[in-house]
Amino acid sequence: MEILTALLIQLFVIYPSFSSGSGDAVAAQEPQIQYFEEGLKFRDNGSWVKALELWDEGKNQMTALGKSDPRIGIAYIELVTDNNLSFYFEQASDMYFWGMSGNNLKEFQQVIDDEAYRVLPLVDEEERDQWKQFVNNDPQALADKIRQFWVPNDPTPATAENERLLEHWVRIGHSRKTYKKNDYSVYNCDDRGVIYVKYGEPDFTRRGNFGIKDDELMRRAGNIADLFDQGQLGNEALQAAASNELNQAIEASMTEGAEAPEIRSGSVTTKTNTTPEGLAREIRLLDPRPEYELWSYKFSEDEEPVYYLFGAREGSSWGMRSSVDEFIPSRLFGKTDEMIVTDPGSNQSIAVYPGSFLQILYYSELESLGSIFQERYNELNSLWNRVITGGKPLERSVIQSVRNKFVAESVEDPIKKYGPQETTEYENIVSPLHIISNQIRMLDENDNPTLTTIAMSYYGGFSREDLNDLIEGKDPTWSGRNEKKIKLSEANLYNILQEGEELHERYKLRQTLIIYDDKWNELDRIIDVPSGKYEHTSAFELNYFDSSFNYVLTAEPFIEDLDPELEEGLREKLNSGENVYLGKKILEKIEPLETNREILEMSDLLTGIKVPENVDKSEFPFPVIPASQISKGDLLFAYVELYHLFMGTEGKAKYSIDYQIVRKNKIGLLGKLVFGDRGDETLAQQSIYESQTPTAEEIIAFDISDLRTGDYEFLVEVTDLTSGQKKVRTGSFKIIN
Predict the structure, then answer these.
(1) Which label site among 50, 144, 257, 699 has the fewest CB atoms less than 10 Å from its CB?
(2) Those residues with Cβ within 8 angstroms of residue 447's Cβ, 6 or more apart along the chain or in another chain
(3) Model confidence band, residue 551 (pLDDT cutoffs 50, 70, 90)
């Protein structure tokens, strides 16, 4: 009986859900076991699934208490990505964010701090100071910062997986396994891993040891040896500095068969061998021949690649180096290892610095790899040409100055300094589902601010199979990509809607507006499936909106004969490699309209094309489909709503609307209005209106056929003719052929 009781107690401790009583009673209790530690035991024994299941149970227990354990969230996503357990990717994303959400994060200050330092290398430089003020101070604020970084970077926010977060942990796992010169970085790997986590696989790598180009060394040694042949050194200061001991050494060296001796006087090394071979041999003795690794990334087609150089300099461990010059010991540029070279025949002496040999030697090994290395090699080569033409060696002050300049330029490299803080494989994919959006602020009949977001999407081509490959850290094969891409500009939208051009028979479109609070916690999501075969536009109307909220639009087609609510079935279709498309857009934060009825107000300006007659107008909240590109042969339509018009003595509101369309140029719209404009680039119109109510709506058509193609600005000014109040809205569009 005692044994049975003990077993029952043990089962209760390990698996509290097995105990009797209601689920609510269990949920209200403090967890009886240390889920994190017990899960680690399963993980370390290779029982990965058991570890994940136990952590899932711990999450459920702690969530009921309003608590979380960031250690579990981090360990969960680490285990899943390290072992490519793709079935758990969705849970891993959820578990990670759950770990950052509890009301007990104060007890995990160090865990949150450590995770923040793992994210900080990816954060923009100006934001890092904001993060660091919460380290050792406010773990909840720091956890919020972490969420605010990852959620907006999710390439597919309509799905439960955050692929960018998963990719980040895949990179960390790869770095820990691959870059093991040391474990000093925040990712427990050497500095190469830090760059890999930020940018992924480099576009180019080279590994080797500096100082192996003997032809370059012999050429420079020959330049020095030739100085003695010229007989014009006249280095009296050095000759006078030679001691009796040095003179004796010179005489000894002239004895037939004697080797060139080496005499150290203080920190000065004296050589009497002036042959190129002899000088080269002495330089080789001082050359540390450091190991190096060079990575390059091409962030932009318009700019030079960004180079990252790694290696171990004298007296330090393997790490990232700012320039080639860091690999050369500083003493080789100064008095410590200055070499006094004396010609036995002429008794002439010169001072040479081994660092100057190694500097041009090291740069010569990289000069063919990029313009920065070639430019520096050419500059050093010009200095060495002065040795040949000027008949004297390089001065130490000149050598030091050039070296310091190279190091400073490397540290302040603008391409590296102002380049991207992090990149992802998803940046290599031009989003094949493009989203055009307009946010129109309005007021309802009770003067409450509303926000209508119109989203229109159109196709390209991308396979979910490719997406999965990227998540799992594989190189995309693009085998699932649709080679016959549809190139569709906004100017074609009218034809698509008017003529019924079919983009893809098998897919219907689903667009989603996701609403987050200011800390990027999801508040709500609105899903719309546009009806009609050729309609790809959704309108999301919010009766209330907060300017601090974050709004994200997503779009993805789904198989037409599949119930959009059957998410599991859809997932199977998507994961099968069927061509699907993805789109995402983070909307700009805007302030609501003025609700004071004593102040004239106007909705945002909506410009575009008129809704075609054969399209169901109930699908559109406005008579205009927004478009930023208008075909030269189409009419341009503008739509506005007016609020808080002042009623006159006749019981009517009177107002004027001035429209001006101006071609963009260097002086801008206001400059055009002040300094005048060219008739072929401007279109103006003024109209007087009346309204029986304090609100009104207007739609006006413009014939733009006489305007040239290019970018235009649109200005609308409303004047209440009773109160004299004015309101202005501006917009922009492009006329194309």
Answers:
(1) 257
(2) 595, 597, 643
(3) very high
